[in-house]
Amino acid sequence: MSDSIPRRLWLEWAKQIQSISQAGLAYSKDMYDLERFEMLRELSVDILARYTEVETEKIKSLFAGESGYATPKVDVRGAVFQEDRILLVRERIDGAWALPGGWADIGLSPKEVVVKEVKEEAGLTVVPVRLLAVLDKKFHEHPPEAYHIYKLFILCEIAGGQAEAGMETLEVGFFGRDELPPLSTGRNTSKQIERLFDLRHETEVWLD
After folding, report:
1. pLDDT band at 126 (very low <50, low <70, confident <90, very high)
2. Window from 47-61, 101-115, 147-161, 191-205 with minimum mean pLDDT
3. How many Å apart are CA 131 and CA 74, to the nearest integer?
4. pLDDT tens for residues 8-62?
5. Is pLDDT of 98 > 90?
6. pLDDT reading at 6 higher than 70
7. What is the pLDDT of residue 1?
8. Does the keyword Transmembrane helix apply (predicted)?
9. ∠ at Cα 84 (134, 156), nearest 5°?
10. What are φ and ψ of residue 207, in 5° steps?
């Protein structure tokens, strides 16, 4: 593979190949077609292993757990403000800071997910107010990722509780737009958080 081709382009190709192979393995009946789709899956794993920091075996296990028609994963984040400061939590996994949130759970609405995540990670009870943004992770400056991910940012108001760290977090704090701490860039970027400061006063949803 030529290194003159941007890494992000290789990653997008690999994810598309994975999507095609996953659908083919789910819906094809012909044994020869199934063999070809499995070869496509192996090719996508090889590309992802080269252009991400994820080990080949881990990529294989991630993909092996996926079946049926491939769809993007959904990451839900809470935008909780206290005057002109936004709530961030320091992640235990990397020691960097992020908006409270995580993967959307089966059986829960985005509003229910954000309430659960803010409570678990920051100790606060919140009420979802409105959707601020729906972003495609590939258009933003995140580290390479094996999955295609949509990110939902939901404005929330504090209704109770006490700001405190949870099982997955080390610290909780409120920060102004010009005093953001080192961020967990796999979860959110400085540009995204800075934009949320403006979006809370607007009526349109940021789609990107």
Report:
1. very high
2. 47-61
3. 14
4. 777 778 878 888 888 888 888 888 888 888 888 888 888 877 777 666 666 666 6
5. yes
6. yes
7. 42
8. no
9. 45
10. -110, 125
Do residues 122 and 164 touch, judged by C-beta distance below 8 A? yes
DSSP letter for 169, please.
Answer: E
For the chain, what is the mean pLDDT? 88
Burial of 86-107, coded b for 16+ CB within 10 Å and e otherwise, reads bbbbbbeeeebbbbbbbebeee
Instruction: Give the whole-angstrom CA distance, residue 84 versus residue 125.
Output: 19
| DSSP element (H, E) containing 80 | strand 73-82
Measured between alpha carbons, how far is 129 from 61 in angstroms, rounded to an integer?
A: 38
Q: Which residue has the tokens 């409570």?
A: 119
Three-state DSSP state, 120:
helix
Terminal C-alpha separation, the chain: 30
Is 135:151 a contact under the CB 8 Å cutoff? yes
Hey, which bits of 83-180 come out as E strands?
A: 85-91, 97-98, 101-103, 124-136, 149-161, 169-175
Among all chains, which residue has been given the structure tokens 């860039």?
185
